Inverse folding.
């Protein structure tokens, strides 16, 4: 009987012992946490003690670095796969490879913009950053913080792709298809202008379907890549061209077109948007953001105005004529 009682006692005492052990450990962890918070000052992390403006700019910088890195990592990786093995110089365009690369860039941008547009706006491109600063979508100080983060992220993404995948890094932007430097410059400018204008109208200008802006932006970039990939490499982004060239330690003499072209395209799209704002573009074709709730709200307001007008008229009708002012 004593042998049967001992396991029962142990079985009953075990939970209480575990509870005491947990309570002791929990109290020690709590005291350690309180000590850490007290040593940190007011129980806040160092980042939270910064002024709001500086903290938000730093968070935006970190978010843009991570987002740009992810976007360009998957884009470079897709291009690396499509260019393996490297086609010989002067060979005709391989449309399946070009389509594969364009899809890699388009889908990578769509996914990461959708993931980050509520955090930082999902820019991932110095040319887009410039456009938002010019159109009022981003404070200039934040733009100055984000710009270098995007460039460094492009270099980091190219370095990781070079380290992960066998063979030389083969995702640099180069002129092809017999395109001259001037032609490459204007191709980059117009393709970037189209992309930036789509970003402004779908993401910067708020409307009923702003949450779907990443889809339209990704499709716009995909279309631009279909055109530009063969002739210029389809950069549209200084960070996209800078990263592989830094890792490969190889800069062509016309590398500058991948900076000047996208930035000129950004200026062109921003100027066109400013012109549209000047002529009040939203009044040219009104009602595009049709919404049944909005229409019902307007009708109720109009009905309320009619009711008030009718009540005022009835009140004046009830007043004797000699009492009218």
């Amino acid at each position: 009987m004593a042998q049967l009682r001992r396991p029962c006692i142990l079985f009953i005492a075990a939970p209480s012992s575990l509870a005491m052990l947990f309570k002791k450990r929990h109290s020690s962890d709590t005291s350690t946490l309180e000590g850490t918070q007290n040593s940190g000052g007011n129980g806040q992390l160092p980042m939270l003690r910064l002024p709001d403006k500086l903290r938000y700019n730093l968070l935006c910088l970190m978010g843009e670095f991570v987002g740009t890195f992810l976007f360009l990592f998957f884009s470079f990786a897709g291009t690396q796969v499509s260019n393996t093995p490297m086609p010989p110089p002067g060979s005709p365009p391989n449309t399946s490879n070009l389509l594969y690369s364009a899809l890699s860039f388009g889908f990578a941008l769509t996914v990461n913009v959708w993931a980050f547009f509520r955090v930082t706006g999902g820019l991932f491109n110095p040319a887009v950053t410039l456009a938002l600063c010019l159109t009022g979508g981003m404070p200039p100080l934040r733009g100055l913080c984000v710009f270098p983060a995007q460039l460094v992220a492009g270099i980091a993404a190219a370095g990781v792709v070079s380290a992960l995948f066998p063979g030389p890094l083969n995702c640099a932007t180069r002129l092809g298809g017999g395109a001259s430097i001037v032609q490459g410059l204007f191709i980059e400018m117009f393709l970037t202008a189209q992309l930036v204008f789509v970003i402004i109208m779908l993401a910067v200008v708020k409307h009923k379907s702003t949450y779907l802006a990443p889809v339209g932006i990704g499709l716009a970039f995909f279309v631009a890549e279909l055109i530009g990939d063969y002739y210029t490499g389809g950069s549209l982004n200084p960070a996209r061209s800078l990263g592989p060239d830094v890792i490969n330690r190889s800069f062509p003499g016309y590398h500058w077109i991948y900076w000047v072209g996208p930035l000129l395209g950004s200026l062109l799209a921003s100027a066109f948007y400013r012109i549209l704002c000047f002529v009040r573009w939203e009044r040219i074709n009104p009602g595009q953001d049709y919404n049944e709730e909005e229409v019902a709200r307007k009708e109720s307001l109009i009905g309320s105005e009619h009711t008030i007008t009718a009540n005022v008229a009835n009140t004046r009708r009830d007043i004797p004529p000699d009492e009218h002012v």
User: Anything to note?
Assistant: The chain has one domain: 48-283.
